[in-house]
Design brief:
The protein has 4 helices and 3 strands. It is an alpha+beta fold and 116 residues long.
């Protein structure tokens, strides 16, 4: 999938942008507290030019080229909770992807691991 997206971005002459999106996570009843999803989302040029954001974290959403889920994390009350740490890590990765060439995206994503 990564090679297909890279070819799509290069062949169509588009410069895709990566952003961080969050949403509430659905957890079983035995998990108390709030959990949130964190994901890196790659947007097409049409969405980035208009400063729009997708309505959901899915490849089926308009303007979304690729999604890298970083998991669901507990949303505590301090800056040391898992959600805040995952959000900051995702923001660092989005900045690194946006400041690199499209050729390097595949290697960066593979070295970070995660889901497809």
């Amino acid at each position: 999938m990564v090679n297909d997206m890279r070819d799509y971005v290069i062949n169509n002459g588009r410069r895709a942008m990566w952003i961080v999106m969050t949403s509430s996570a659905k957890m079983p009843n035995n998990c108390s507290g709030k959990y949130r999803n964190v994901a890196l989302v790659q947007l097409d040029q049409h969405y980035t030019a208009r400063n729009w954001t997708p309505k959901m974290i899915s490849t089926h959403a308009r303007g979304v080229l690729s999604v890298r889920h970083m998991g669901h994390h507990f949303d505590g009350q301090t800056d040391r909770c898992a959600y805040v740490r995952a959000y900051h890590l995702a923001q660092q990765r989005a900045d690194a992807l946006n400041n690199s060439t499209p050729d390097a995206h595949g290697e960066m994503l593979m070295s970070w691991g995660g889901s497809a």
